[in-house]
Amino acid sequence: MPNGHGADGNTTADGDGVVDADGAVGGSGAADREALRVDRVIDGLRAFGANYTEFTRRFATWLGLHSTDAAALVEILYAEDQGTPLSPARLSERVSLSSGATAILLKRLEQAGHIVRTRESADRRVVTLRSSPDIRPRAIAFFGPYSERMAEAMAAYSPREIQRFEEFLGTLRTTMDALLTEEYEGGGPSFPAS
């Protein structure tokens, strides 16, 4: 996503300010350094998201699934791990598919033996999605190294720093949710009038 600075935007920082693509130094000061720092953070988050997507793509290849099916399976596994198993409707929201497309996807996962649908609620109409006993050990085998390395990386930070990261990411998530709900609900913002 172009941000006007750094790798995506033709400007870099030096000790005195911002150097543009032609080598000219401009607008030195704390504000420029802070803008570059924010750009680096956003770029780091984007790169992390891209890497996570690549893990999911490789999980799909490893299982012989379509990437969308694997992404749905990961969502089902993650929700179970969090103690909040998904309904088909909630999964549909998480993977951005229509209810019809989600139903077809769930049928494929069920026929492959990767998920089961249960009726755990007092309201027997409510369907809960669960991973099958066969898929969980395979998911643990695949994502185990990822989980271990992430835990090792996070161990380098104090509990207070982790709390601040959590607050920061929570704020970003709330901001993104609001943007998607309000300004991007129809697929994107309106084009400016000519």
Strand coverage percent: 5-15%
Terminal Cα span: 25 Å
What is the CA-atom radius of gyration, in angstroms? 22 Å
| Main beta-sheet strand count, sense and barrel state | 3 strands, antiparallel
Number of strands: 5
**Adjacency order of strands in the biggest sheet:** 1-2-3
> What's the rounded overall pLDDT mean?
85
What does this structure look like?
This protein has 6 helices and 5 strands, in the order βββααααββαα. By secondary structure, it is mainly α. Helix 1 packs across helix 2 (67-81), helix 2 (67-81) packs across helix 4 and helix 3 packs across helix 4 (99-111). The protein has helices spanning 30-63, 67-81, 88-95, 99-111, 135-154, 159-182; strands at residues 12-13, 18-19, 25-26, 115-118, 128-131. Strand 1 (12-13) and strand 2 (18-19) form a beta hairpin. Helices cover 59% and strands 7% of the residues. It has a 3-stranded antiparallel β-sheet with strand order 1-2-3, with helices on one face. A two-stranded antiparallel sheet has the order 4-5.
List keywords for this structure.
mainly alpha, 194 residues, globular, three-stranded antiparallel β-sheet
Q: How do you describe this structure in short?
A:
With 194 residues, the protein is mainly alpha-helical. It contains six helices and five strands, in the order βββααααββαα.
SSE blueprint:
Blueprint: E1 12-13, E2 18-19, E3 25-26, H1 30-63, H2 67-81, H3 88-95, H4 99-111, E4 115-118, E5 128-131, H5 135-154, H6 159-182
Antiparallel strand pairs: 1-2, 2-3, 4-5
